[in-house]
Design brief:
By secondary structure, this protein is an alpha+beta fold. It is built from eleven helices and 18 strands.
C-alpha cells in the first residue's frame, strides 16, 4: 500500500503530513537547499516506504482565482474560451503561467460556471528544484482552498448537518483565505492580506475587519443564490474567535463556529502557534477527482524518467537473475552428468570384478560346446567316422577345429583300401568333400603299410 504524503511550502514553514502524522519545519528562506534540508529532516523522522503518493499543496496567496461564466457545455470549447480569457483578463504572459480549472456545472439556461486558478511558473521553481534530490515526485499539485473544504467536511462528519452553502475562514501565519462553499464545491475564494502574525497589531486588526467585511460582501454578490448562514473558522482562527464573531455579527450576520480535528488538536497542543494545517490535513483525508490540479511539465518529465529508470533496473535485475539461474541450471546439469558418469564407471569396475569368474565359465562352456554340439561337435564326427571306417583302415590321429577343417591320419596295408575309404567318406553327408592328401609306405614290425592323411574341407 502506498504511503500518502501531503506537503505545503509557505513563506516561513514546511508543513508535511505523512499518514496523518504532522511535521512542521521552519524555513529561513525559500532557497531549494533550505527546503531540501527540511524535507530530509521530516523524512528521517517519519521514514515512509519506497512506494509513496505525494501531493503538494500550493498556498492560496500564490494563486489568482477567478469565477468565470462561459456560454458552453462542451469541454473543448470551454478550454478554448478560457485560453482567450487568460489573454484578456490575466496580467501575465501566457507562457509564464500554469493554469487549471474546475467546472461547477451548467446553470440550466446558458452558462457553465467555472473556477479558474492561475499561478506563475516561477512559483513552482522550488517544488521542481527541491523534490527531485529527495526522490519525491508529486502525483499532483493542488490548491489549498479546496483542501479546506475537505477538512471542514471531515471535521463536521457525524457531528452536525452542513447546509448547502457556507463560508470558511482559514487564518495562516501570513494571510487568511475566505472561501464560499456552495453545493459542497468551492464556489469562490478571496485572499485577505492579514494573517496570525499581522493580527497581533491593533491597526492590522482594523484593516482585517474592513477587508473581511468587503470579502464576505464580494462573495455574496458573486454567487447570489448561495445565501450562507454560517462561517466555519479553521487554522489559527481559534485565538481570534471573539474578534471574528464580532465582525460577522455586525455586518453579514453570519454565525461563526471554530472546527477542528483530533490530528489538528494534537498539533495545537505543541509550542508552535499561528500555523494553519487545515489544507494539508484536508487533502490527507480526501482528494476529489474534480479538484483543481496543476500540471508542471518539468515534474512530469522527471517522474516519467524515474519510472523508466525503475523499469530498466527491474528489467536488468530480471535478466541477470535469468542468466544466473540458467548458469546454475547448466552447472547443476553438468555436475549431475559428471557424477552419473563417475557412478557408472564405479559400477562397471565393480561389475568387472564380479563378472570375471562368469567370463571364465562362459569360455569353458564355449569350449565344451565345441565338443558337445549335436551337428558340429568332435564327438559327432568321431561317431560318424567310426561308422564309416572299415577294419582295413587304422586311424592313428584326429585333428578337429571348431567350424574349420577336419583331418585325420592313419595307415592301411594297401593303397586301394585308402582310396576306397576316401571315396566312402566323400559320399557321406558328414565328410562330404573328403580328399586324400598323401600316401607313404613304411614298415611296422617287418610289415609294409601305407600311411595316409585325409582332409575334409
Amino acid at each position: 500500500m502506498k504511503t500518502k504524503i501531503v506537503i505545503e511550502i509557505s513563506e516561513r514553514w514546511l508543513k508535511v503530513v505523512v499518514e496523518k502524522k504532522i511535521s512542521v519545519e521552519p524555513l529561513i528562506n525559500q532557497d531549494p537547499a533550505t527546503i531540501i534540508a527540511a524535507l530530509n529532516s521530516v523524512l528521517k523522522q517519519n521514514r515512509p516506504g519506497k512506494d509513496t503518493e505525494v501531493c503538494v499543496v500550493l498556498s492560496r496567496n500564490k494563486i489568482t482565482v477567478r469565477r468565470v461564466d462561459l456560454p458552453s457545455q462542451d469541454t473543448k470549447e470551454l478550454e478554448q474560451m478560457l485560453g482567450f480569457y487568460l489573454i484578456r483578463q490575466i496580467p501575465y504572459h501566457k507562457e509564464d503561467i500554469c493554469w487549471s480549472y474546475q467546472n461547477l456545472g451548467f446553470d440550466g439556461i446558458s452558462n457553465s460556471h467555472l473556477i479558474l486558478a492561475v499561478a506563475l511558473k516561477s512559483v513552482f521553481h522550488n517544488v521542481v528544484s527541491s523534490f527531485g534530490p529527495v526522490n519525491l515526485f508529486p502525483e499532483s499539485i493542488l490548491m489549498s482552498s479546496q483542501g479546506l473544504v475537505h477538512y471542514v467536511s471531515e471535521a463536521l462528519k457525524d457531528k452536525s448537518p452542513v447546509n448547502a452553502s457556507y463560508m470558511i475562514l482559514d487564518i495562516d501565519s501570513n494571510y487568511s483565505d475566505l472561501i464560499l462553499v456552495h453545493k459542497q464545491k468551492l464556489a469562490s475564494s478571496v485572499v485577505i492580506a492579514q494573517g496570525f502574525d499581522q493580527l497581533k497589531s491593533e491597526q492590522e486588526k482594523e484593516r482585517f475587519t474592513v477587508e473581511l467585511k468587503q470579502a464576505i460582501a464580494a462573495l455574496n454578490n458573486e454567487v447570489p443564490e448561495a445565501k450562507p448562514e454560517k462561517i466555519f473558522l479553521t487554522g489559527a482562527a481559534s485565538s481570534l474567535l471573539v474578534l471574528i464573531e464580532g465582525i460577522v455579527a455586525m455586518g453579514p450576520n453570519l454565525k461563526a463556529q471554530y472546527v477542528s480535528t483530533k490530528e489538528y488538536e494534537s498539533f495545537a497542543s505543541s509550542n508552535l502557534k499561528g500555523i494553519s494545517l487545515s489544507a494539508i490535513l484536508g487533502f490527507n483525508y480526501h482528494v476529489a477527482k474534480e479538484d483543481i490540479k496543476f500540471i508542471v511539465p518539468e515534474l512530469q518529465i522527471k517522474k516519467e524518467i524515474k519510472v523508466k529508470v525503475q523499469q530498466l533496473i527491474i528489467l536488468g535485475i530480471s535478466l541477470v537473475f535469468i542468466l544466473v539461474m540458467l548458469g546454475v541450471i547448466g552447472l547443476t546439469r553438468l555436475a549431475q552428468q559428471q557424477s552419473y558418469a563417475a557412478l557408472l564407471k564405479t559400477k562397471v569396475q565393480d561389475q568387472a570384478k564380479d563378472s570375471k569368474e562368469l567370463e571364465e565359465i562362459i569360455n569353458k562352456l564355449k569350449v565344451a560346446k565345441q565338443y558337445t554340439a549335436s551337428a558340429d561337435s568332435a564327438a559327432s564326427y568321431l561317431y560318424e567316422l567310426s561308422q564309416l571306417c572299415p577294419s582295413s583302415i587304422m586311424i592313428t590321429s584326429f585333428n578337429w577345429e571348431w567350424k574349420k577343417a577336419l583331418s585325420f591320419r592313419g595307415y592301411a596295408l594297401q593303397i586301394p583300401d585308402i582310396l576306397g575309404f576316401a571315396n566312402t567318406l566323400s559320399r557321406s553327408e558328414t565328410f562330404k568333400g573328403a580328399q586324400n592328401r598323401y600316401t607313404r609306405r613304411r614298415k611296422i614290425k617287418d610289415k609294409d603299410v601305407v600311411d595316409f592323411e585325409i582332409v575334409v574341407k
